[in-house]
Amino acid sequence: MHIPDGFLDAKTFITLDVVAVGFVAAAAARARRVLSERAVPLMAVLAAFIFAAQMLNFPVAGGTSGHFAGGALAAILLGPWAGGLVITLVLVIQALAFGDGGMLALGANVFNLAVVAPFVGYGAYSLLRKVFAGEAGRFVGAFAAAWLAVVAAASACAAELAIAGTVPFAVAFPAMVGAHALIGLGEGVITAAALAAIRASRPDLLELGRGGAA
Amino acid sequence: MRKKFYWIALAAAVLLGAAVSPFASEWLDGLERVAKDKGFLARGEGEPLLAAPIPDYAFPGIAKAGWATAAAGAVGTLLTFALALALASALRRRRGK
Fold this sequence. Notes:
The complex is a heterodimer. Helix content of chain A is about 75%, strand content about 5%. Chain A is mainly α. Chain A has one domain (about 10-210): Arp2/3 complex 21 kDa subunit ARPC3. A two-stranded antiparallel sheet of chain A has the order 1-2. The relative contact order of chain A is 0.18. By secondary structure, chain B is mainly alpha-helical. Chain B has a domain at about 1-25 and about 55-90. Chain B is extended, with a radius of gyration of 18 Å.
């Protein structure tokens, strides 16, 4: 759901550009205090995987497709701050090198996909892990958290389109949530599958992001 | 350090970005679909502020669309890996702190 330039008005994209700069500054300051050396190679391959996976649109309904976004996966593995930084980097590369997502709308895309999605996904996963303990809970929790993260990001996007005066909220919200409720199922499956692959090969990496500190 | 995992994961990512991406669905994504249905898709189709070097994930100068996408995916995945490695290395907590 990369917003191109032209969908948002100046007050909306400038506000979110400022918010995004603030998030990056706070996340970078936090990384300098808590980011462990062990998280460095994981962040690099995770960013590469998320970039590649975001190219792979899968059909969800007649004429509509979606792709993995990765916010919940990054937050589950690294915590929401470092996870959000990984998504931010992917979004910056996509906007600058590939023209995917607007330059002025970059802050809005960072807010939706690198702040809202990781924090909602991380919060939901932490709560669900308390309810569903054990290994099955890891995958059920990851699936549900990833679905919720995508739907939350889509809701934020709908709110921005409404605030910008592009389309009324009562129109944008059901349409965005409807489409992304389907796309979120794919997000959930890929998130759970990625965690299963890591658990099978490097289970120690699943504990890096615990307590939000990678 | 067990580095094998990371090399395999990177290889898998490059494979996805280069070999699977040409077969991705070309249908409108969720936001584009909503924009088309609600009549504001054209607002996003102005000239870009800065010309992207690899616009729309098609590597310039490659005639076949599938190969252009594959090249863009490979370059993008490796570029993302390199920049994320540099960023994470620069930001990580220093030893002894």
